[in-house]
Write a structure and sequence with these properties.
alpha+beta, three-stranded antiparallel beta sheet, 14% strand
């Protein structure tokens, strides 16, 4: 895709074809948001909007903690879908680098949630400035290496918890995500229509901040940059300088 990415908070980046469609169906979307009526027509319009948007990219951020080799690999090869095999390879890699002992590697490989249906084979992004999620929403992703699938099982463990907190560096992966790769049940178009209407008089009553999962790998050409703590941009995007305890 050679088209510039869409920034949800900046309507000036929205493709003309999207804005035209929203304008043509403005009354229909208003009716649904204000009164909750016309469900069939709204569903059809939302599906049509998704079809239009599928040819575009959406600018977002992935919050994580990475080692330097992992950073270089993502910049070179993009982001792969997480699963048990991928986690095992990552654990083996840090063991090979001397960051953990073999018995710790065995524990990490055996005690994790990598096969959970809400984590495996999907890459989560926030399509807004991460600080909007607040400290409680993002801090754990930065404090422990391995992602939710790993730290959920070890965060409070007196042996493995501190080890995961010592590995890697907090990172923001800034990427342009193909909208076609987002889940079929995504609420993206609902929020796009709502943002459009808010600028035209609708009072904000529902969420417009959008998190979503990519169901396909993110190609290296779509990785804009990896921002490492304590880069000023990392701090500006997370407001981690205001956290307690500090990052």
């Amino acid at each position: 895709m050679n088209t510039p990415p869409i920034f949800l908070e900046d309507e000036a980046t929205w493709p003309v074809v999207v804005l035209d469609y929203l304008q043509q169906n403005r009354d229909l979307f208003f009716t649904w948001e204000r009164h909750g009526t016309g469900r069939k027509a709204y569903d059809d319009a939302e599906l049509a909007l998704r079809s239009i948007m599928n040819g575009h990219l959406l600018h977002g951020y992935h919050c994580t903690r990475l080692t330097e080799p992992e950073i270089q690999n993502i910049m070179l090869n993009g982001m792969q879908l997480p699963n048990k095999q991928m986690l095992d390879r990552r654990i083996q890699s840090i063991q090979g680098a001397g960051l953990i002992e073999s018995y710790i590697a065995t524990r990490l490989k055996n005690e994790n949630q990598a096969i959970c249906s809400n984590r495996a084979e999907m890459i989560w992004f926030c399509f807004y400035r991460p600080y909007i999620a607040g400290q409680s929403g993002i801090q754990r992703l930065f404090r422990s290496w391995g992602g939710e699938a790993l730290y959920n099982s070890h965060e409070k463990d007196p042996q493995t918890g501190p080890i995961l907190k010592s590995i890697g560096t907090p990172c923001l992966i800034e990427a342009n995500v193909p909208i076609a790769d987002l889940g079929v049940h995504s609420t993206l178009c609902e929020k796009v229509a709502r943002l459009f209407l808010i600028k035209r008089g609708l009072k904000k009553k529902k969420c417009v901040d959008h998190d979503d999962k990519a169901n396909s790998p993110i190609l290296s050409r779509n990785i804009k940059r990896i921002i490492q703590y304590p880069d000023p941009d990392f701090i500006a995007l997370t407001h981690c300088n205001k956290w307690s305890p500090p990052l």
